[in-house]
Specification:
This protein has 130 residues and is α/β, with parallel strands linked by helices. It has helices at 16-29, 41-50, 68-79, 95-103, 116-128, and strands spanning 8-12, 34-38, 56-60, 86-90, 108-111. The two termini are 15 Å apart. The mean pLDDT is 90. This is Two-component system sensor histidine kinase/response regulator hybrid.
């Protein structure tokens, strides 16, 4: 699924290794992707507020300060009526997280560690099948 379609992705994670994996995998899947990173929820919200024209947000749930649930709620609020898919990143995919995530406006989940095939499915689902 190597796409030449230019896309913009906001990746929010406090773990630099995870951000590196995200950047590496997405760059292989979509070489023209622009990947903007933030290391905490507050920074992610601020980046989104300044430039809300993202195609996808990848959001770690356990962040210092403002957690992924709260950051996702704020991003959805900033986006207003513009649909912006938010995919949570978490090592745990418990039922409680799923329901709490839906309430926060999270559309889907990717398990950590970030892997090629699940990331490819997310990109197909939310970006390339629009």
């Amino acid at each position: 699924m190597k796409s030449q379609k230019p896309i913009r992705i906001l990746a929010v994670d406090d773990n630099l290794v995870n951000l590196f994996l995200i950047r590496t995998i997405i760059s292989k899947l979509c070489p023209k992707a622009e990947i903007i990173t933030a290391e905490d929820g507050e920074e992610g919200i601020e980046i989104f507020r300044k430039s809300a024209n993202f195609d996808l947000v990848l959001m770690d749930i356990q962040l210092p300060g403002i957690n992924g649930y709260e950051a996702s709620k704020m991003i959805k609020k900033i986006a207003q009526n513009r649909p912006i898919p938010i995919v949570a990143l978490s090592a745990n995919k418990m039922e409680d997280m799923l329901s709490k995530g839906k309430l926060a406006g999270i559309d889907d989940f990717l398990s950590k560690p970030i892997l090629f095939e699940p990331t490819q499915k997310i990109l197909k689902k939310y970006i390339f099948n629009k």
